[in-house]
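Hello support,

Our group uses your service weekly, and this is the first time we've seen a run hang past the timeout. The protein is TLN2 protein. I'm not sure whether the cause is the sequence or the server load. Input pasted verbatim:
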Amino acid sequence: ILTPVVSLSPVFSLQMTKSVTNPEELGGLASQMTSDYGHLALQGRMAAATAEPEEIGFQIRTRVQELGHGCIFLVQKAGALQICPTDSYTKRELIECARAVTEKVSLVLSALQAGNKGTQACITAASAVSGIIADLDTTIMFATAGTLNAENNESFADHR
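Update from on-call engineer: The timeout came from a worker crash unrelated to the input. Re-ran successfully.
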């Protein structure tokens, strides 16, 4: 899910803002943003449906929708600037819309990170368990080879 969010990142908004001086580039950028948002909306729906607790899912869904509204306004302003490339008011509005989209992207990312806490805890736990298993495998290998010192006359095979 992070790939489409990163595509709508501040770098993209900066490209949109810089295109104020080259309005002919705005059409391609708006098309790319629309495509990236479409991917984000699909993946955001799945993330919201699986998020625990439900409040996190609601936040993800709401923030993705708010980002969509911001993208709509940004595309509209890009179209308006293409129609009248010398209008300084429309240029300022486009820049403001790009800033708003940047803010909304950061809100989506924070909601996704909040929903990711449980997943991250599972990844951390799995990594710790893998480390313990590797340590046990190493100990078994040395014990089987007979390189560990026995405290009494028992063999490793008795304990294994």
